[in-house]
Amino acid sequence: MKKILNRSGDIVTQSIQGFLAAYDKYFEAVPETNCIVYKNRRKGKVSLVIGGGSGHEPLFSGFVGKGLADASANGNIFASPNPQVITETAKAVDEGKGVLFIYGNYEGDNLNFDMAEEMCGFEDIKTAHVRVWDDCASAPKERIEDRRGIAGDIYVIKVAGAACDAGLSLEEVLRVTEKARDNINTIGLATSPGSIPGLNKPTFELGEDEIEFGMGMHGEPGIERTTMKPVDELVDRMYDELKREMSLNSDDEVAVLVNGLGSTTLVELNTVYYELDKHLKSEGIKVHDAEIKSWCTCQEMGGFSITILRLDEELKKYYDASCCSPYYAREALI
């Protein structure tokens, strides 16, 4: 597998150092780690630390910035950061108001962030966490805590960052963030595999004319493997899953995210939204906001995901708050 790198073992460190060299006006490293901190973060508030394995860029480091996360704890490719690294990242941004951790619901992340919270306790740092489990294809609703976190991370981080900047207590930030998490669902499909730098084989195999609904970000099994179909049929299937999962109806107001998994072009992603928009309009669901881009990726994996966030007035306030990072920003265009 062709990769633009020096040595595979150095790719995460050199990627982070390249990011910091380009954006050193805004970010700095947590010493002796691959983690980054936003220099101009607001003081005297709850701190937000996000993190997980590298290889999903711009998630997670690309969501550190104004109105977003204060720091990102970054592991190796597809591997959780270790507890000591997470703890040092939390210490670097702690303002005495507590630290909220947000990460995807994966065994390694759960274990390491739990251990980091214990270590933070020894440093008298108050902590809480939100595990994102938006992938509705990865487990049934009655086992929601077994579901994986995928592109829904973006909306959870967005709301949490705004709640922190608004000066809410750790308990209130946690409540608002969990509310956002629990109103988000995502389903994706893969058209081709990604890869891990240094390995000469893909993370999974798909036939030339095969796709898989519900496949995870690391190649975890999905819910159905079938032949490639026109985009209207793909979106029909995915929207039906989301509608049933969320009981969507004409009283709902939503934010929608069409996310590319790494190699899918904007031409294709825009066409996905073209088809999705038909469903939303025909059922009278109000779209408060929609975005089309690649935020939560898996190297060069082909495919896309659709994320829906159901909004109420409280969530809308935090969703609409301005924010900015090199890869994600929200501000009125008019």
UniProtKB/TrEMBL annotation:
The keyword Phosphoprotein does not apply. GO terms for molecular function: glycerone kinase activity. Keywords: Kinase, Transferase. Residues 7-328 form the DhaK domain. Pfam families: Dak1. One of its GO terms (biological process) is glycerol catabolic process. It comes from the Bacteria. InterPro entries: DhaK_dom, Dihydroxyacetone_Kinase. One of its GO terms (cellular component) is cytosol. PANTHER family: TRIOKINASE/FMN CYCLASE, TRIOKINASE_FMN CYCLASE. This is Dihydroxyacetone kinase DhaK subunit. The lineage of its organism: Bacteria, Bacillati, Bacillota, Clostridia, Lachnospirales.
